[in-house]
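FAQ: What does the model actually see?

It sees only this:
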Amino acid sequence: MKIGIFTDSYLPYTSGVVRSIETFTEELTNTGHEVFIFAPSYRGCNQESRVFRFSSIPSPTNPDFNLAVPFSIRLRPMIKKLHLDLIHVHSPFLLGRLGARYARRLGIPLVFTYHTLYEQYVHYIPIAQSVTKELAQKVSRGFCNHCDGVIVPTGIIGNYLRDIGVSTPINIVPTGINVAKFQSGDPDWLQRRFNLPPGEKILIFVGRLGQEKNIGFLMDCFKAINREISNTRLVLVGSGPAEEDLKKRASDLGISQQVTFTGVLQPADVVNCYAGATLFVFSSVTETQGIVIAEAKAAGLPVVAVRAFGVSEMVQDKVDGFLTELEPRQFIEKIILLLKDEQLYQEMSQKARQNAEQLSTANCTATLISCYHQVIANFTVPE
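And it is asked to produce this:
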């Protein structure tokens, strides 16, 4: 198959959406399919094979993220020559809508992956800070129902779309991970790189440092945990618009010396961070999947996470970690339990590794290809 990917979010920007596109593109290519990506440009981007870049501008509310200008005189003649079998879009805005228009012009199927609970992210929209939950849902519903197939990473998100009125066929396709890669990290790298004291129990978070990730909750809980178990450290891997506010919060809480901000790291070094950690902690309540949870489990880390949306399907409660309510006491208790009960910790670590195998890139990509074939088989050109 020849697949056109239209996305508002792509390298060098880092996010769960970008990671999903990277993962599936690599595996699709390895299995003989051709993938062409249409994405915003970023300063310093080199010319890339099969990647079409649109002129773009930095987002006023998140300067690391570029907003594409969804127009190019080069696009129409080039896309006609590709003879795409379908177009797969990854947002209902800008390039997602452009991809949808070209799917209709070319008379080919349109697939949309619903990655994001958009009503939880309106603080990033520069011209619509007062956008309501209802309007965000209306946009999602309308765009999904314009597509020939919708992909969601977890069943609970599929149910959410049905509840808001989506009638298009929905398929569950989680983003897979290279399990072996996350089992091969250097367990000493994190301590060496950031000069951490030996023997610490490290609680790790990996992801964008944004308001929607609820990292302030992690910090508040960590203060109590560190008071109970003094040789603990919170490591935040990543960067984002809330980073400076979070550093100030750590200072205000009196835990700056026990909290490490790594900034953006190379993928291989993120793997090393997992290998050097003790537990994965996650308090976001906006995830449609939470790929980082699967990565942590592959590295053998039990997970303590807030039970919300897609996360609830990524952790087997009381098997490879714990799911809690958004309530500090519960969250703190489960972390302390795992840090103090070595036998329970080892049992959950082993189960985490085993359960991560279910999300291998090969398995997930095979499911995606099956969805593509199904959409193509059922497609009829609109009159």
